[in-house]
Design brief:
The structure is a single chain. Helix content is 50%, strand content 3%. It has 11 helices and 4 strands; from the N terminus they run E-E-H-H-H-H-H-H-H-H-H-H-E-E-H. The strands form 2 sheets. A two-stranded antiparallel ribbon has the order 1-2. A hairpin with a 2-residue loop joins strand 3 and strand 4. Helix 4 crosses helix 9 and helix 5 (111-118) packs parallel to helix 8. The two termini are 25 Å apart. Mean pLDDT is 82; it is low at 10-27.
Length: 262
């Protein structure tokens, strides 16, 4: 049975400050309580505490955060993205200590990608990933992948790419952690500007009110969880573009699940 978001939980505040609460006390529980605390927060410290509580409620709480709180505050924006990243990382089963067989269903050589990631040349690795994915799907002339390409992408190759990114970034980068963040912020298979902005803020592609160009990304491990891969400077496989991004990322989440990649 699914939880009722309107029911108070163990971390909800109680008017009166008594534990257990008095019989006539009012429990500010559920989404309504979270909403009230977000609206009533007047200082940055109160906002951060309210955001932390809201994000415990998954998609519903996350949407409230972006609806109510001014996430353009640099410190608050960092708090939101960090908490989203922590939630996503908790779900990633990283292959951090295992050898990686560079398997390909279409005879792609992954040794260069592995060397780039092992050397932490994240910018070059992002370009190489985009190039490989386009070659696998025979989409180099088009320069991007659409959802139908993602659906047909070989599981063996997707697993190799994902495992390499997870291993060499300690789980911080990769498609799996990106799709977890996408699901947390309210994924949609249709173009949804608000959802796409929430995702962009979560992974650090949208910051201080503007989308960041590929060359302006942070190509090191200090970047937001899920910051990479993005898809290269001029070629890509769909991410970074609003009109294709929602559909492509949703298709990727489905593909990862069908391939049992986590």
């Amino acid at each position: 049975m699914s939880e009722n978001p309107n029911q108070p939980r163990e971390y909800d505040a109680v008017l009166g400050g008594q534990v257990p609460p008095p019989k006539d006390g009012v429990v500010l529980g559920g989404i309504e309580g979270v909403k009230r605390r977000l609206i009533g927060a007047t200082s940055l410290e109160q906002q951060i505490v309210a955001v932390e509580e809201a994000l415990k409620y998954g998609q519903a709480g996350t949407k409230l955060v972006f609806q109510i709180v001014n996430t353009e505050s640099e410190k608050l924006e960092f708090t939101v993205s960090s908490l989203l990243g922590q939630q996503a990382l908790a779900k990633v089963q990283s292959h951090l200590h295992s050898d990686i067989p560079l398997i390909s269903a279409v005879d792609v050589n992954y040794s260069r990608l592995q060397n780039l990631l092992a050397s932490r040349k994240w910018k070059d690795a992002d370009q190489e990933t985009a190039s490989i994915m386009l070659r696998v799907c025979d989409r180099i002339p088009q320069g991007f992948l659409d959802p139908s390409d993602v659906e047909k992408f070989p599981c063996e190759d997707l697993n190799t790419i994902e495992t390499l990114w997870q291993k060499y970034s300690n789980g911080r980068f990769g498609f799996v952690v990106q799709t977890h963040i996408w699901q947390i912020v309210g994924c949609t298979s249709n173009p949804d500007w608000e959802a796409w902005c929430r995702f962009g803020k979560g992974v650090g592609w949208f910051s201080q009110g503007a989308w960041r160009y590929w060359n302006d990304l942070t190509f090191d491990l200090s970047a937001n969880v899920g910051h990479l891969p993005r898809g290269g400077a001029f070629i890509g496989w769909g991410l970074g573009d609003f009109w294709t991004g929602c559909r492509t990322l949703s298709a990727l989440a489905e593909k990862l699940a069908s391939c049992k990649i986590a």
